[in-house]
Backbone:
């Protein structure tokens, strides 16, 4: 059963059917290979970027810590992926705006490989050439 694709929004946490992993990819659990994810970016009603999440304690720089429902979770920054909204099974809830904004900043720094930048400071510690 797939979700109502119109009802998917950024910041939401959903159970999705990610399928079986290949190599080091995070896969789902049970027969439907489900895993919770955060909707990072919705492009249209058929395609979104998601970050798989785990409740197992993980450390930076590859994970971003956040609190959801009084429990600690970790978003896997290295597992950012584009998926079809047909994979969405059921909505869990929505993370706070502050956690989501911090996650977005970390993704930008991570993707652009700006190792010397602190995403919370807004400026680089390294002098510009």
Residues:
């Amino acid at each position: 059963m797939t979700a109502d694709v119109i009802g998917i929004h950024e910041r939401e946490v959903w159970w999705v059917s990610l399928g079986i992993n290949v190599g080091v990819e995070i896969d789902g659990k049970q027969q439907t290979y489900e895993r919770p994810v955060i909707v990072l970016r919705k492009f249209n009603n058929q395609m979104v970027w998601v970050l798989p999440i785990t409740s197992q304690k993980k450390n930076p720089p590859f994970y971003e810590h956040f609190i959801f429902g009084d429990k600690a979770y970790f978003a896997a920054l290295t597992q950012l992926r584009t998926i079809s909204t047909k994979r969405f099974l059921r909505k869990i809830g929505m993370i706070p705006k502050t956690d989501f904004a911090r996650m977005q900043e970390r993704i930008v720094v991570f993707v652009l490989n700006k190792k010397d930048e602190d995403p919370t400071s807004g400026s680089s510690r390294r002098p510009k050439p």
Remarks:
- The chain is about 10% helix and 35% strand.
- Residues 5-95 form a domain with the SH3 type barrels. fold (CATH 2.30.30.110).
